[in-house]
Write a structure and sequence with these properties.
The protein has about 325 residues and is mainly α. The protein folds into two domains: about 1-120 and about 290-330, no CATH class; about 140-290, no CATH class. It is built from twelve helices and four strands, in the order αααααββββααααααα. The chain is elongated, with a radius of gyration of 27 Å.
């Protein structure tokens, strides 16, 4: 029992303290590739330790089963409960079935809650979709001229005045653009947008976002899981920005971001005169981190991931033996 408590307390410590450590390390997107990995490593560490705590608790309950059965029996029938009663199959089978039934009921309720709390249509995209934006699909659309492929496997244009671009994963996958986006993008900016969406599909960012959103719905109120989805989604956008910038260059990508955000065409030559508030993604592209700072952040994130994985393994491996030694010494 004490081993399960130690492991569970470690899982709680990871779930409540690690977000405060990862937020400043990943907030600026200096290492957009390692950032999501660090958040997912922390989530996996907390879940693994919580599962190990449950396993240790079940093991302890199995070891103490005779005493537990006797206590339950005597609490119901008092002195009338004898060893013949609480050790009989007629008593132990219903008592043993109660635990898995309760666990399955809790799992079913968590699954229903997670389905009801999910946000459909949150596919990664160049700009976030707002309520009322057109959903992805091949009908009511046309393919972009000059793009390879056709149908749902290519780029599909939907008739909508709001500039938007997003990808729809699947087999085959599709990139969806609105006619409003085509109206404000020139050829180079359109190439940058498409490169951004292809980077999402190639890295399967939708799976990461769906996974973290499901964990947030299943564990409401736990900071690691409630803050994780927004952080991972933001880093996924920055990672796709990096891939697009390597393909088309930063000026075209920045101009496309501003054009999609403002709804007005922005030539790349006008960027030097642009003023006013811009998004963190534009700031990051305009002022990329130096190699030394990038290396420091990569080292820090790698160290955090290694420590989390190592500590989780040590806690789950040695908690049981150490608790047994403490019981024998005592």
């Amino acid at each position: 029992m004490s081993a399960a408590l130690v492991v569970f307390l470690y899982a709680l410590a990871v779930a409540w303290s690690v977000p405060a450590l990862l937020a400043p390390l990943t907030g600026h997107g200096i290492s957009a590739r390692l950032g999501p990995a660090a958040w997912l490593t922390a989530m996996a560490s907390a879940l693994a330790c919580a599962g190990a705590a449950v396993a240790l608790l079940i093991s302890a309950a199995a070891a103490c089963w005779p005493g537990f059965a006797e206590a339950v029996c005597r609490s119901v029938t008092g002195r009338a409960c004898t060893a013949v009663v609480y050790r009989s199959a007629l008593f132990e089978l219903p008592l043993g079935a109660a635990a898995p039934v309760a666990a399955l009921t809790a799992a079913a309720l968590a699954w229903r809650y997670s389905r009801g709390s999910g946000e459909p249509g949150s596919a990664p995209g160049f700009t976030p979709r707002r309520p009322g934006s057109p959903a992805g699909g091949c009908r009511c659309g046309r393919t972009v001229k000059g793009e390879r492929g056709g149908g749902c496997g290519a780029t599909v244009v939907l008739d909508a005045s709001e500039p938007a671009a997003y990808c729809v994963p699947g087999r085959p996958a599709a990139i969806v653009l609105t006619s409003g986006a085509l109206a404000v993008l020139d050829r180079a900016q359109l190439t940058a947008v498409l490169a951004h969406e292809r980077a999402h599909l190639a890295a399967r960012h939708q799976l990461l976002i769906s996974l973290t959103c499901g964990l947030a719905a299943g564990f409401p109120g736990v900071p690691l899981f409630t803050r994780g989805p927004a952080k991972v989604a933001r880093l996924a956008e920055m990672c796709a920005d990096d891939a697009a910038a390597r393909r088309t260059g930063r000026p075209a990508l920045i101009a496309a971001l501003l054009a999609m955000g403002t709804g007005m065409a922005v030539p790349a030559t006008a960027l030097a005169a642009t003023s006013g508030p811009v998004t963190a993604r534009v700031h990051r592209l305009l002022d990329p981190p130096r190699r030394g700072r990038h290396a420091r952040y990569c080292l820090a994130l790698s160290t955090v991931m290694v420590l989390l994985a190592t500590a989780s393994g040590l806690v789950t491996t040695f908690a049981g033996p150490l608790a047994s030694c403490a019981m024998h010494v005592g």
